[in-house]
Prior knowledge:
This protein is 0% helix and 26% strand. By secondary structure, it is mainly β. The strands form 2 sheets. It has a 3-stranded antiparallel sheet, with no helix packed on it. A two-stranded antiparallel ribbon has the order 1-2. The termini are far apart.
Amino acid sequence: MKSSVKDNAVKLESGGKSVDISSGKTVSIDGKNTMDIKSTQAMNLSSSQNVSVSAGQGLSLSAKSTLEEECKGSSVKLDGDINLKAKLIKEN
């Protein structure tokens, strides 16, 4: 793996299969401007604990074909139709 610093940018490049980052401490990424995470392949985010996402203003999720959420026996599937599955669905 090769790393370089140019114009205050850090670039990690790998000629192998992956770039791995691990730490026994917190790993922080702080983007002062826009931050993009991109892949031409599938991406996974997992945790053995809670995962929290927050936004100071809006939060936008989009998918080309389907957006799904599941938890226990409940699910929401958006694919042009809205499919709700639960033991009890409450409407306000």
